[in-house]
Every structure is written in C-alpha cells, then in structure tokens.
C-alpha cells in the first residue's frame, strides 16, 4: 500500500499555529506559568508561521516564473499554495501578531483564562489561514467555521459584562446562519457544475456555454451573502456594531481584521477565479452591495456616539470600498487595501483598548475629549490612523482608495466610483468628528496609560500608514505578484 | 532644486517638532527662521527664471511605474508668481502669530506643512501628485482653523473641510477618468499634464470632466454660489490662517482653472465661457454688496475676497492676452493686499479684542501708523493707480472687454463698490474721535508689526509702479496657454486681444 505524497510545506503555518495553541493549553495545565510565558509561546508560533509563509511565497514565485503552476495544487486539490493564498496568510499572521500585542493587557488580565484566549486566537488564525488557501469549497467552509467559532467564543470572553454575552450570542446566531447560507450556496454550485474545486469550477464554466446557469447563479449569490456577512458588508452588517461594542476592546481589532482579510480573499478566489466567466452576472450584485455598504456605513457612522460603533460602521463602508475593487476585478488593489486597512483597524482598536483601560470600560466619544493634551502621542497616532482610514493623501488609505477606484473605473463601473467618492466625503465627517473631540475640546480627565505592547502596535500601524502612503510601490508590487492560480 | 522647495518646509516642520518641550520660547522664532529658507530658494528661482514659455527647473522621478505616476515638478510663468507669493506670506504669517501661546509647536508645524503642500500644488506637473498636495493641504488648514480659531472654529473648520473635500472628490473621479482614457488611447496610463493635453476626448466626456474640475476649483476660489464656507472659515481662522487662506489657498482655485481647465479641456472651456463669466460677475457684485453691510471687519474683508476673486475668474475665461496676464498678476496682488488687510485686522483684534466695526472708531488718533497701513492696503485693494491692484484689475477689465463686453461693464461696478465698502469701513473704524476709553488708549504699531507690514507694502508699491518685473515673466506662459486654446478649438481671439494688439502688456511693443 502506498501512501499519497503529503506536501507538508503547504500547511506548515497551520501546523505551527495548532501546535502553538495546543502547547499553550498543555503548558497552562501542567505548570500554570505566568501569562508572559504563554505569550512567548504564542509569539514564537506566529513568528515561525510567518517564516514558513515567506518560504511558501518564494516557492510560489518560482513556480510561477518557471510555469510549473501545477505544483502549487496540494493535497489533491484541497488547497493551493499560490500567491493569493500566501499573501493572505502573511497578512493574517501579521494581524495575529499585532493583535496579540494589542490585546495583551486584556489577555493578561484574564488570569487563568489567559491560555484559553491565546489558544483561541491561534486556532482562529489557523482556520482562516486554511480558508484563504482552500481550493475546495468544502475546505473553505471548514476553515471558515474553525475561525468563526473561535471568534464567537472570543467575543464572549468578558463574562462579567452583559454586553459581551449579548455580543457573543448575536455573533454566534447570525454567524451560524450565514455559514449555513454559505454551505447551501456551495451545494448549489456543486449541483450546477459537479465540482467543489475552484479551479475545476473555473474550467467547467470556461469550457461550457450554459443555457440555464440559474442554479449556479443562485449558489454564487448565497456564497456572496454568506461571505458578505463575514466581512460585514451591507445589508448583512447588522451584527457588527453590537459585536464590536460588546466584545473585549483588546481583541475586537483582531477579530474584525482577520474576518475581513479571510472573507475577502475567499471572495476574490471564488468570484474572480472560479466564477470569472460569469462576471457579467455577479457584478451587478456585488456592485449593489458595494454601493449600499459605502453609503450606509458612512451615513450611519455619522450618527454614532460610541467610537467602537463608529469603527464598526466605518468597517461596513470599507467593506464597500474593497468590494468596489472586486467589481473592478483586480486582486492587486483588493489585497493592497486589505493589507493596509487591517493594520489601521488594529491600530485604531489598540487606541480604543488603551483609552477604555484595563477594566474594558465603554468607549463613548466623551472619553476621547481633549486626548491631544492628555496623551499627545496617542492622540496623534489615532489621528494619523483616522486620516488614513478616511483616505487622505500621504497616507496608505489614499493609495488604496485610488487603486480600487481606478480599477473600477477602467472596468467600466463609473457610477460606482462616483458613489464611492461621495461616500468617502461623507466618511470624512465622522473621522473628523473624533479628531475634533480629541484636538478641539478640553477635558480635565487624566492621562491615558498606554501599555508598552500597544505602543508597538501603534508605531507599526502609523509608520506603515505613512510609508505606504508616500512610497506604495513596495507593497503594491507584492500585491501585484499575489496572483491566484 | 524644486524638490527642495517642497522639502525645506517639511524638514523645518520636523526640526520644530523635535524641539524639546522646555524650550517653548524657541518654537516660533525657529519656525520663522526656517520658513525664510524656502523664501530664499524661491527668490533664487525667481531671478534665474527665464521669460520664455514652457516649464523650467523640471524634475522627473518615476513614483510607481505600473500606475504611471511620477514625482514631476516644474515652474512656468503661471505658477512661479504663486510660489513666490506663498514663500513670502508664510514667514509673515508666522511672525504675526505671537498671540498664539497655546500649543505653539503644533501651530508652527502645521503652518510649515501647509506651506509644503501649497508649494507642491503649484509645482506639480503630474495630476496624481497635484491631487495629493491639493487634498493634503486640507489637513493642516483644518487643524489651524479648528484649534487656534475663534469661537465658532470647529463649525467653520468642518464646513471648510467638507466643502473642499466634496469638490475634490469629484475631481478625483475626473482625474481617474483622464488617466484611464489615456491608457485606452495610448496603451499606457499617465497622469502627466503634458500627456493628458493631447487626449482626444469626446464632447460630452470633455464637458463632464470640465465640470468636475471646475466644481472643485470653483469651491476653492470660491465662486458664487459655492462660496458660503469662505466667510466662516476666514472669520474664525487665526490671523495667520486667514492670511494664508486668502493669500494662497483661494488661489489654488484660480490657478487650477487656468492650469487645468483651460489646458486640459479647451473646447469645453470655450463653451463654458459665458457660464463662468456670469458666475464670476455675480460673485463680484454680490460679494461687494454683502461686504458693504457687514458689521464684522474681518467678515467684510472676507467678502471682499469673493468679489476680488471674481475678477480673476472673469479674466481667466475672457481668453485674451491681457485678461490672462491680469488674472495671474491679480492672484499675486490679492494675496498681498488682502493678506495685509487680514494682518491689520488681526492687530486691531489683538489690542481691542473685537472685530465689530460698531465698537471701533477714531482709531486714527491712537494708532496713526496702523491707520496709514490700512488706508494704503485699502487703496491697493480698490485699485488706485500706482498701486498693484490697479494693474491687475485694469488688465483684466481691458482684456475682457473685447470678448465679454457686457459682463466686463457690470464687473467694473465692482471696483466702485469696493471703494464704497472699504472706504466706508475705514471711515467708521478710523476717522472721527474715539468714543470709548479703550479705543483712545490703544498703542500704535510696534517695530515688529511694522516689519511685517512694510514688506507687503513695498511689494504693493513695486508691482504698482513697475509691474513688468512680474509681467515679463508671466506673459510668455499665458501667451502659450492662449495659443494652446486657439490651436485646439475654433476659438479666435478678437482684435485687439493678443499681446501685440494691446499697449499695456508688452510695454513698447504696442
């Protein structure tokens, strides 16, 4: 009996993360060490995963160069190791690393439950990492569920807060509903094409002229709905504000960012690669979701008085902007946007975590009053990140928006670009509102204590926001190389 | 060379930003000293600048190849005066800010970054780069108004930001459309102005794009009816903010119309002449009429800007040699005179803590020198012969008359209205006897304040007596622009409308 060849290299990052998660739990059970030790184990596994992903990136580049693309299909087509997968994976791992740093004060504060939270974060990342690399839609679903279920639990970690429970229940109920819709969509696609694998679906759709693609289209529609939920695109966004507000401030940034990255990479893979031939059919739906998300997200963010809810609605708007890039059929601009936005989002929530304090207080806008005088560096970093998310020039946000807009325009979706620029002006208003509160109002509240770990996250987020705003070429080149098979 | 013109203020901002907190007293002086460096460099550029058409001192560095964007800089006769004006006004505006004692460091940093952005806008030869600077300027200006302004500063700052951002957002769509069209027609995406000038746009596309750009610039100018942000922003901004807002930021609009609308969309520009002229004339008369009834001196000067900028737009779209030159030089003139007026209003406010005309009166007795400078700037603003305002307005009016006689006649009434509102304001504020104790005991200008106003006054006089210092350098570029418009449309400049026909422009050629 001969065993099938196993290409370990394709799943080393996930193995490392899972081993890390298991080690965290076992070490906790056996030795009950200080949380710091658990953090070191987690950090070590994230770094090892990043290192192995970089090797994957080089292998994927070689394979493309020498036109041996077949080599990138691993595990009999279950997963692939193409540029898209590896780029998404590295983005996820970076988010995880910084997310652990940003949330460390919270995790440490959990005491004996710190190991659970740490392990959950590692497992969630492993799941989403499989999701971005999945070629088989069932595999996508498995990754999605491993990741999502971990996030549901994370959302409810602060048991003493009623809001946290509410957030977890809401997230779980709506999230499992969305997962069910997704898997039903996958079933319909299978019914229509007889294939689960994205590459096989692609060649099926390229090879046949379908007279009645109804079933496939309904399947695609359901898949879009399911993933649209995960990336909090309107009208599937209603969970986001409550979850962002209720979940522990320390890990919200991580939760929001990984779900967006993994969801959008899956959308890109399924729509642009798998169903590329049906572009004319799905584009109107995605464009409508994009327009609705941008407008609804920006307008509703205007009327929020809680910074976390504001960031949630701004996340809805950003989902719309990224969808605009999907409509423009450009992986490059979508990936660039995802990379810079996930870092900015993490940074913004790191600020929220710092201001909310170790006791995880509410994040009412009033808490930010006069922050510029109390903690100038914290306020300055937040201002840069907000301006970056608003997409003002000299920040990476501008380059990202410019990228998706010009791709959508050259794809012939001029109206969507006009909606997008109008929405971004509306969005300026609420980003500026936070800046007004920080810089133009006074308060006698005390200085905010910023833990050292959060400082690192903020420094990284601010520096990349400006560097990739002034010299976007380095990241754009990488994003341009991150092609799907 | 030009890169340094942009980078020097940025470096200056970093240096001031890194000053230790204990050395508060150094922040403003160091900022002023550092802002003199770009002035020196701009002065060098000014004197070396050759009076020939086309861009000089050009620099070109590819920024990101696949997108066709480049760090591409250059000056010509249209942008060079604006760069010089910017570098002159920034040190003066900073030096006038001794009243700012709260968060001085941030103020200086913002002002220097603002300067870098403004210079960048005028130097950019690449639309992407232009847009980056054009939009980036909003951030420091937003902070300057919002943090150091007066009572309703937050409202004014937000209104300023959203108005301008809305205009530029549609322009961004227009810029993308142009670059994509260039990609379709030639196979390579490009944002270079010189490349985009050669595009074959259809009539309707050209009109839409013209509208998108014109809206952005009209809001900036501001043209009637999108001017409503201006009185608030000007009135609430601190003195330095008002000076730079009126002196330079508004000129981004008129500069944009000249540089981009006329050269990128000549046919649509020719078709839109009447719309733009009518809006300009409405602005001239309306701005002046509203200025007459203002009770707040700063607001009065703000509305006078609406009126004066109308002349520049009229001159831009009248499309004759004289009107274009007039428009360019009037950009500079308005920056000097209105900048001066805002400085003086700020000095009154620092002493008396009011800007209401009714509470002032008879200030001539206590502050003869301040009154003298105010009257001098008023005369320049009205267009008294021998001072700079006369040169610009006369060129605009005489140049516009050949192509747009009726609007020009109506616009000329704006000169008279300007005399009414400014001289009447002078009468109410400065003449007579001071009625209240506060007004009687105000100290006159200090040596520092005189040294702020004197350079402006000197430039007003020089440009009034010998405008050819500037006009000689402006004329070749405006002629080239006019040639471009004539060559790409069926528009003919009527006689006398070209340089050779008009006696004022070329001096002895006529």
Give a brief rundown of this model.
The complex is a heterodimer of chains A (485) and B (510). With 485 residues, chain A is an all-alpha fold.
What tags apply to this protein structure?
heterodimer, A: 485 residues, mainly alpha, two-stranded antiparallel ribbon, 19 helices, 1% strand, globular, B: 510 residues, 2 strands, disordered C terminus
What does this structure look like?
- The complex is a heterodimer of chains A (485) and B (510).
- Chain A contains 19 helices and two strands.
- Chain A is mainly α and 485 residues long.
- In chain A, strands 1-2 form a two-stranded antiparallel ribbon.
- The longest helix of chain A is centred in the middle third of the chain and has 32 residues, at 162-193.
- Chain A is globular.
- In chain B, α15 packs antiparallel against α18 (388-401), α17 (368-382) runs antiparallel to α19 (405-430) and α17 (368-382) packs parallel to α21.
- Chain B is globular and about 70 Å long.
- Chain B starts with a helix and ends with a helix.
- Mean pLDDT of chain B is 88; it is low at 505-510.
Strand-helix topology:
The complex is a heterodimer of chains A (485) and B (510).
Chain A lengths: L11 H20 L3 H31 L7 E2 L4 E2 L2 H27 L4 H20 L3 H19 L6 H32 L4 H10 L6 H17 L8 H8 L2 H26 L4 H24 L4 H21 L3 H26 L14 H4 L1 H15 L5 H15 L3 H26 L12 H19 L2 H9 L4
Antiparallel strand pairs in A: 1-2
Helix pairs in contact in A: 1-2, 1-4, 2-3, 2-4, 3-4, 3-10, 3-13, 3-18, 4-5, 4-10, 5-6, 5-10, 6-8, 6-9, 7-10, 8-10, 8-11, 9-10, 9-12, 10-12, 10-13, 11-12, 11-17, 12-13, 12-16, 12-17, 13-15, 13-16, 13-18, 13-19, 15-17, 15-18, 16-17, 16-18
Chain B lengths: L1 H16 L6 H25 L7 E9 L4 E7 L4 H16 L8 H20 L3 H10 L1 H11 L4 H34 L6 H4 L6 H18 L8 H8 L2 H26 L1 H6 L1 H20 L4 H22 L2 H32 L10 H4 L1 H15 L5 H14 L3 H26 L6 H4 L6 H19 L2 H21 L14 H4 L4
Antiparallel strand pairs in B: 1-2
Helix pairs in contact in B: 1-2, 1-4, 2-3, 2-4, 3-4, 3-11, 3-15, 4-5, 4-6, 4-11, 5-7, 6-7, 7-9, 7-10, 9-11, 10-11, 10-14, 11-14, 11-15, 13-14, 13-19, 14-15, 14-18, 14-19, 15-17, 15-18, 15-21, 15-22, 17-19, 17-21, 18-19, 18-21
């Amino acid at each position: 009996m001969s065993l099938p060849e196993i290409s370990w290299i394709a799943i080393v990052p996930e193995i490392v993360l899972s081993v890390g998660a298991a080690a965290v739990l076992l070490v906790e059970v056996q030795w009950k060490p200080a949380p710091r030790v658990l953090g070191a184990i987690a950090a070590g596994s994230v770094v090892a995963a990043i290192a192995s992903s970089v090797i994957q990136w080089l292998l994927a580049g070689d394979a493309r160069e020498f036109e041996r693309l077949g080599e990138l299909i691993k595990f009999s087509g279950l997963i692939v190791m193409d540029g898209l997968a590896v780029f998404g994976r590295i983005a996820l791992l970076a988010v995880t690393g910084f997310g652990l740093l940003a949330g460390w004060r919270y995790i440490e504060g959990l005491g004996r439950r710190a190991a659970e939270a740490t392990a959950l974060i590692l497992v969630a990342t492993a799941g989403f990492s499989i999701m971005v690399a999945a070629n088989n839609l069932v595999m996508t679903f498995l990754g999605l569920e491993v990741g999502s279920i971990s996030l549901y639990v994370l959302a409810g970690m602060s048991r003493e807060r009623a809001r946290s429970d509410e957030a977890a229940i809401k997230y779980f109920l709506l999230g499992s509903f969305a997962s069910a819709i997704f898997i039903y969509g996958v079933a319909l696609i299978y019914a229509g094409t007889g294939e689960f694998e994205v590459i096989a679906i692609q060649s099926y759709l390229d090879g046949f002229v379908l007279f009645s693609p109804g079933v496939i289209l309904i399947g695609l529609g359901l898949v879009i709905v399911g993933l649209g939920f995960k990336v909090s695109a309107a009208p599937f966004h209603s969970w986001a504000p409550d979850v962002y507000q209720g979940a522990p401030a320390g890990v919200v940034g991580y939760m929001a960012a990984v779900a967006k990255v993994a969801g959008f990479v899956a959308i890109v893979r399924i729509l642009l690669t798998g169903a590329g031939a049906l572009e004319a059919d799905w584009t109107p739906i995605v464009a409508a979701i994009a327009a609705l998300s941008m407008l609804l997200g920006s307008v509703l963010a205007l009327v929020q008085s809680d910074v976390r809810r504001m960031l949630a609605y701004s996340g809805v708007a950003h989902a719309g902007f990224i969808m605009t890039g999907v409509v423009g059929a450009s992986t490059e601009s979508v990936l660039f946007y995802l990379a810079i936005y996930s870092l900015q989002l993490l940074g913004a929530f790191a600020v929220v975590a710092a201001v909310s304090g170790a006791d995880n207080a509410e994040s009412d806008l009033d808490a930010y009053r006069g922050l510029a005088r109390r903690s100038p560096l914290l306020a300055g970093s937040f201002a840069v990140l907000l301006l970056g998310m608003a997409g003002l020039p000299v920040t990476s946000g501008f380059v990202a928006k410019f990228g998706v807009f010009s791709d959508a325009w050259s794809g012939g979706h001029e109206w969507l670009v006009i909606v997008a620029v109008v929405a971004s002006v509306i969005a300026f208003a609420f980003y500026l509102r936070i800046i007004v509160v920080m810089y133009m109002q006074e308060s006698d509240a005390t200085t905010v204590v910023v833990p050292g770990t959060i400082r690192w996250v903020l420094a990284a987020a601010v520096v990349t926001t400006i560097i990739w705003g002034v010299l976007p070429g380095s990241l754009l080149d990488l994003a341009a190389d991150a092609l799907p098979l | 060379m030009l890169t340094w013109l942009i980078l020097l203020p940025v470096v200056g901002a970093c240096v001031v930003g890194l000053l230790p907190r204990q050395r508060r007293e150094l922040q403003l002086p160091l900022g002023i000293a550092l802002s003199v460096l770009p002035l020196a460099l701009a002065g060098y550029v000014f004197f070396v600048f050759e009076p020939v058409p086309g861009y000089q001192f050009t620099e070109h560095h590819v920024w990101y190849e696949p997108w066709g964007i480049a760090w591409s800089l250059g000056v010509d006769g249209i942008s060079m005066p604006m760069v010089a004006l910017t570098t002159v006004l920034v040190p003066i505006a900073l030096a006038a800010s001794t009243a700012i004692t709260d968060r001085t460091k941030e103020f200086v940093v913002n002002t220097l970054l603002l300067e870098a952005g403004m210079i960048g806008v005028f130097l950019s030869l690449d639309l992407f780069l232009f847009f980056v600077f054009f939009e980036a300027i909003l951030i420091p200006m937003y902070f300057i108004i919002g943090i150091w302004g007066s009572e309703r500063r937050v409202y004014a700052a937000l209104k300023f930001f959203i108005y301008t951002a809305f205009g530029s957002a549609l322009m961004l769509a227009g810029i993308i459309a142009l670059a994509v069209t260039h990609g379709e027609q030639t196979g390579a995406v490009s944002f270079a102005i010189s490349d985009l000038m050669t595009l074959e746009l259809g009539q309707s596309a050209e009109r839409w794009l013209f509208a998108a750009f014109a809206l952005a610039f009209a809001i900036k100018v501001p043209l009637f009816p999108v001017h409503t942000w201006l009185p608030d922003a000007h009135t609430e901004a601190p003195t330095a903010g008002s000076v730079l807002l009126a002196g330079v930021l508004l000129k981004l609009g008129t500069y944009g119309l000249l540089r981009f609308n006329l050269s990128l969309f000549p046919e649509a520009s020719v078709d839109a002449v009447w719309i733009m002229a009518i809006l300009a004339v409405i602005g001239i008369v309306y701005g002046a009429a509203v200025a007459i009834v203002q009770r707040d001196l700063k607001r009065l000067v703000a509305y006078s800007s609406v009126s004066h900028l109308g002349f520049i737009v009229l001159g831009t779209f009248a499309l004759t040699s004289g009107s274009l030159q007039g428009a360019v030089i009037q950009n500079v003139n308005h920056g000097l005179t209105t900048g001066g007026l805002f400085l003086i209003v700020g000095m009154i406010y620092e002493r008396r803590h009011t800007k209401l005309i009714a509470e002032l009166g008879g200030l001539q007795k206590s502050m003869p020198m301040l009154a003298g400078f105010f009257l001098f700037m008023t005369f320049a603003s009205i267009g008294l012969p021998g001072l700079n305002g006369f040169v610009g307005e006369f060129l605009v009016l005489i140049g516009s008359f050949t192509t747009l006689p009726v609007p020009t006649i109506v616009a000329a009434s704006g000169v008279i209205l300007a005399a009414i509102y400014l001289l009447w304001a002078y009468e109410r504020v400065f003449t007579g006897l001071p009625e209240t104790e506060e007004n009687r005991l105000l100290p006159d200008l200090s040596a520092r304040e005189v040294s702020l106003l004197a350079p402006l006054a000197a430039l007003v006089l020089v440009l009034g007596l010998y405008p050819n210092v500037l006009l000689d350098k402006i004329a070749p570029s405006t002629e080239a622009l006019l040639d471009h418009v004539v060559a790409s449309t069926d528009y003919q400049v009527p006689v006398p409308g070209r340089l050779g026909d008009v006696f004022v422009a070329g001096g002895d050629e006529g």
